[in-house]
Amino acid sequence: MPISPSAALLPCAELHLHIEGTLEPELIFELADRNGIDLPYADLEELRARYQFTDLQSFLDLYYSNMEVLRTGADFAAMTRAYLRRAAAAGVRHVEMMVDPQAHLLRGVPLEECINGVAGVLATSLEEFGISTVLIAAFLRDRPIAEAEDVLRQLLAMDAPIAAIGLDSAEVGNPPEGFVELYRMASAAGLKCVAHAGEEGPAHYVEQALDLLKADRIDHGIRALDDPALVARLVRDRVPLTVCPLSNVRLRAVDTLADHPLPQMLALGLNVSVNSDDPAYFDGYVDDNFAALQRTFGFSPDQLAELAVNSVESSFASGERRAELL
Ligand code: ADE
Ligand code: ZN
User: Fold this and answer.
1) What domain range includes position 305?
2) Measured from the CB, is residue 315 less than 6 Å from ligand 1?
3) Which ligand approaches the C-alpha of residue 14 most closely?
4) Is the pLDDT of residue 1 over 80?
């Protein structure tokens, strides 16, 4: 379906999405029940009351804790299917989805349960939901570097259906420079490379992700605006920045949506797209992000179309699929 710039529902690609961040409270309770897990919350209301974040770490604490309910491939499949159904309604036509295999392995969940549970649903997503997919294995930057390298080796040995690697979790104090060998291994295996940088961390983490990790795309990147020379480089090279407005508000990277730098980024000529990051935690899927932006900034049809076109052009979709979407 070609892109038409309607604010209500903008057909687009979602390039920055953590599948574990789509775990809705209702599904958390359902999976806990199925797996005989005692949750530390009495009911949905008590869980929802925890969704008040002061920074990235305060969110990550809850995100990792809620993952406990994911035990089997069927659990991962249920979560993935629920996201795709909701994303289709949001206008998403292509998704590049991150999964945190290391986080599950650390909890004793075999890689096969996690990867095959997600990938099994992705395999039929185009037919079932009209959404083409790419799976990205993300590594935890606040864990030992050797652990990430070991998990990547295991993923490669099992021929996991991943097309790229990513770098996520607590950013400040965990710069990209430690992960050069991980990214070298991934690149040698033919994988694409993305990395979170400049979400809470400084602009020079964005530079490191480009120079040292050879990242094809930067997740977030809003702090790059602190460095005009870096901005000029990002514009010149059309480096894709996968921006997540509601996430940035909820994790207090910006004070309010009205303070978000997205309009400035567009005006500077940066290659930005709009994404939901962890929609179950941040009040919204990609359509909610677009609607909130529209309410706050009143983007023109041309600006909306630019955001959607950027998302497709910055994706790892095949040339044929991109042509279908543009
Ligand atoms: N893992 C899940 N969501 C994340 C985010 N917004 N930043 C870093 N790591 C994450
Ligand atoms: Zn993210």
Assistant:
1) 12-315
2) no
3) 2
4) no
Alpha-carbon gap, residue 313 to 309, rounded angstroms = 6
Dist. CA 262 → ligand 1 center (Å): 19
- CATH at 123: 3.20.20.140
This complex has an ipTM of: 0.98
Instruction: Give the single-character DSSP code of 123.
Output: T
Q: Is the CB of 246 under 6 A from ligand 1?
A: no
Q: Is 169 in the pocket of ligand 1 (CB under 6 A)?
A: yes
pLDDT tens-digit series, residues 42-65:
999 999 999 999 999 999 999 999
- Strand arrangement of the beta sheet that strand 192-197 belongs to: 12-18, 92-99, 132-140, 164-168, 192-197, 217-220, 240-243, 271-274
Structure confidence by residue, pLDDT tens digits, 210-246: 999 999 999 999 999 999 999 999 999 999 999 999 9
pLDDT at 214: 98
Q: Which of 276, 278, 282 for mutating ligand 1's site (highest number of atoms within 8 Å of CB)?
A: 278
Number of domains in the chain: 1
User: What are the residues whose beta carbons fall under 8 Å from the beta carbon of 172, sequence distance 6 or more?
Assistant: 200, 201
Q: What is the pLDDT of residue 9?
A: 65
In-domain check, residue 93: yes
Find the 194 Cα to ligand 2 centroid distance in Å. 11
How many angstroms does the Cα of residue 217 sit away from the middle of ligand 1? 15
